[in-house]
Amino acid sequence: MMKIDSKLPDVGVSIFARMTQMANEQGAINLSQGFPDFETPPALVELVAQKMRAGHNQYAPLAGVERLREQIALKVKRQYGGVYDPATEITVTPGATEAIFCAVASVVRPGDEVVIIEPAYDAYAPDVRLAGGRPVFVPMPPPGYRIDWQRVKEAMSSRTRLLMINSPHNPMGTMLDTDDISALSEIVAGSNTLILSDEVYEHIIFDGRRHQSMACYPRLAARSFVISSFGKSFHTTGWKIGYCLAPPALTSELRRVHQFVTFCANTAVQEAYADFMADLGWFDKLAVFYQQKRDLFASLITESRFSLLPCQGTYYQMLSYAGISDAAEIDFAREMAIKHKVAAIPPSAFYHGGADHHLLRFCFAKSDDTLRAAAERLCRI
User: Nearest-CA neighbor of 349 among 366, 369, 370, 332?
Assistant: First the structure.
């Protein structure tokens, strides 16, 4: 039998797939994987059907449907003041995860170092390793889970090619503020370090906060891949459409990779999004919609033995079970799914070394009935 020397020997099936499978097998309420259980806007579904019937069923342009890129440019200018040329600075991809892969693959060479803030989305480090780079991990310390910029500065070197950041942050729900932006700007000034800013939860922000996108800051935007997704904003995670904003030189390199990964994203869906985005007010309403769900879930578990961590953005609530059990996160997550019939994600899976803080991540992008049923079970633990 042929022996395969794996490039990622320590990487298995993602924790998201494993916990969803466990939820299905155990009949547990699935608050683990980050997808809504309520319907996609009917008008958007109808638009996709219309576009298919109208013949938009063949390959889209490599960079994405022009009308959609134009709508993205309008949205970014309205919200952040950033100006991006749809022709040379915006690329539509089949999901944000592919955009992240293409960005890393396009600029990271063997021997380069990439600073990753932990906890981190599980795709970051494998992408870096596949490109021949070396991940350098900087943890956000508890209990606040804010970026320690002094540690970031100490982790950087002349070999640092890329700094990967994520705000609003999955899984912790924290957000960058203006002090973070000042620290980041100071650290990268005068260097050749690029930034990959994962902003897929940019519209799910709470309590009147403002998302600090790299697109707001010209000097940062000039060295940044800014990546976002429609799936989180339109309740369409399975449609897998994301996009990347970057200056022309970086966009050109990203597209060199993108053309050989998938070439293009779904044409009819892109056309439908272009029409649907004409109502830019949707994004303003999204934050209100999810803040109501965050607050509902929090109110429902006030009588439980779990402790809530602050959630500034994303549709995830982090809960501490330190007052309930000393079990490791992965073990307690299994117990939750099997015994208590509620599935959640152990944040230890977001650390390369499996750091364990007795926390679980719960997705509240669910119907109110689902949240009530889950909370009832949590309150019985």
Answer: 332
Each residue's pLDDT tens digit in the chain (381 positions)? 888 999 999 998 999 999 999 999 999 999 999 999 999 999 999 999 999 999 999 999 999 999 999 999 999 999 999 999 999 999 999 999 999 999 999 999 999 999 999 999 999 999 999 999 999 999 999 999 999 999 999 999 999 999 999 999 999 999 999 999 999 999 999 999 999 999 999 999 999 999 999 999 999 999 999 999 999 999 999 999 999 999 999 999 999 999 999 999 999 999 999 999 988 788 989 999 999 999 999 999 999 999 999 999 999 999 999 999 999 999 999 999 999 999 999 999 999 998 999 999 999 999 999 999 999 999 999
Asked: is 15-40+282-378 a CATH 3.30.360.10 domain? The reply is no
Q: Which among 307, 301, 319, 330 has a CA at the least distance from the CA of 359?
A: 319
Q: Tokens 């319907």 label which residue?
A: 39
Amino acid 156 reads M
**CATH number listed for the domain at residues 58-279:** 3.40.640.10
Where in the chain are the domains? 15-40+282-378, 58-279
* Dihedrals phi, psi of 342, to nearest 5 degrees: -135, 125
Which amino acid type is present at position 377? R
Pick from 76, 104, 105, 108: which is nearest to 89 by CA? Answer: 76
